[in-house]
Amino acid sequence: MNEELAGLPLWMLSPLAVVGAGLLLSQVIGVLLQSRGWPKLYGAVIAGLLLGVSGLGMVDAALLTQFQELFNAASALVLFEVGRKMDLAWLWRSGRQGGVLVLGCVLRGLGAWAILIAFGLGWGEAAFIAAILIAVNPVVFSSMVSDSSASGVATYAAANTVGISNLAALLALSGSLAWMRSHNLNAEFGFSEELLRQASKLALGAAIAVVCYGLYAMATRISKAQAGLRPGILLATLMMDLGLCSVTSSSALLSLLLIGLLLRNAETRENVFQAQVKTAQDIGYALLFMMSSALVQIEHLFQWMPLMVALLVFAARIGLTRLALRPSGAWSANKKHAIALSLCSLVGFGSLVVDNSMTGASYMGDAAARVMAALSALNVLIGPGLTWWGLKLADETHEGDKHG
Which of 165, 236, 335, 355 has the fewest CB atoms within 10 Å, i.e. is most exposed? Predict the structure, then answer.
């Protein structure tokens, strides 16, 4: 074994160097694609596929596990930004508009569950996967919005939906996980006990967010930090929140979203720090999506049954989101099409639980795992493109403004 390692280039022996090389490759390809009018995130897709399990095999689950804290930190920035985009006052005042956005989340979950049941999955497994499929991928949506400088009524509604969908998915997943764990052969607790455990994790995550936000508010007031000096305090707060959630096994997703919500809806002072945080977030987008792409097994798309299910689920999620928007007169038909397309991407189990990305795999049978693998592969290949197309269709992109 030592002789084999001795024959490898020195940089290939460093996991950090491999991840760094992948990130460098994703940035170079992404910039080249962006200069030709294509989504920059596909640079991370290409780099991940080339270096990951479907390509050279240099980046796999074992290697990425060594950098879980780094990926969690990148997730913290993304999830905080999702929470910061949620305008609770607008959702409350908008009435029907807010209602149809929530309805879209419900229909996505129910539609996915019905399709999975129809293709022979057990209803418990189907509910577990359907709960995940409620959510919209915040990395894909936020990256596409950032790259295209999108803003407008459709983008605003979709940004609010990303946060709503992740919260709804987390709640649904807590219930389905409690059911799956309580009905496992090695179950230690019944359903009610498991449900209480899941609820406790959510409550503890919310409590940590309130405490960390309080510390952030106190620190900025004591130091009298101006808006341009607050990013460092904010980043320290997010890292502290994520660390506390990790050691207490509480819900990091809920906690990080809640900090963003509090900063957006409870903070009355000016919060002009987006420019300083944006670079770190853009790197986080590339890093997280490169990681997702590296673990994708493209061969699952060559199995016709999982592929057919994945295509049906993708189409149904878009169609049901569009159907939910129909009662509202706030957006034109074209804007509704755009919102439905821009919300097409889906998340993985690891994105919803942040810290415990592998704990859901043991609860799925082979058929369910193949469907999830096909969905992940399809999402990596077409999710960013459809989201980008949706933002273009809304006619709310302003790429030229960044170079003007």
Answer: 236
